[in-house]
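Worked problem 6 (solution included).
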Amino acid sequence: MNQQELVLILFQVIVLMMAFAVHESAHAYVALRLGDPTAYMLGRVTLNPLKHLDPWGSVAIPLMSLYFGGFLIGWAKPCPVTTRNFKHIKRDDILTSLAGPASNLAMATVALLLLIVFKHAVAGGVPAIITAMALAQHVPVDTSAGLPTLFPIAMLLYYAVFINLLLFVFNLIPIPPLDGSHVLRQFLPYKVEQVYNQIGMYGLLLIFLFGGRFIGTFYYPLLGLFDGLLISL
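Solution. The predicted structure is:
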């Protein structure tokens, strides 16, 4: 592994940790606004990544993903929610669950807008962004050409698009304990919900082993939309 690969891994880890922090803070903040202070009292309304990290989902799984060259995905420590504190339990639990993925989509959108500004405001911005896109998507590219000094910013911002969109899609998969499952369970009969909740890690294991194509079915068109906007605007 050369120096460039190590730097790119570091950039991805930085973006992933911040994405986790914003994602979980969004859950906690929306729950608080809807009447449940559980996560707030546990210090989860914070952008400090250390408050949200899960040893398995935030460290082991992402490292395995990097090692095997797959999608860089994972999850943070689940945000505790006491649904009986909500005035409208079904609606408020759905809104709290969707707040996390929505925050990832918002971060990807903000990063896209900043990249568009970078593209037009920085000398050499266009080749810098094209190079960042290629590196993030593992396309061979010559980095010895004269890239601007601010190229690392373009790289970080594109990873913010790349990773946050992936987390947005991944967390909406309706398999426990992902956010999509918290939405789906609100519409299941009680007995079916009990069986559904037991899928847990078995479902996630199947996703990690065989779900790359399934995730890509939704992820790549969304990434293509963002890439298209970045190139055309």
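Discussion: The chain has one domain: 3-232.
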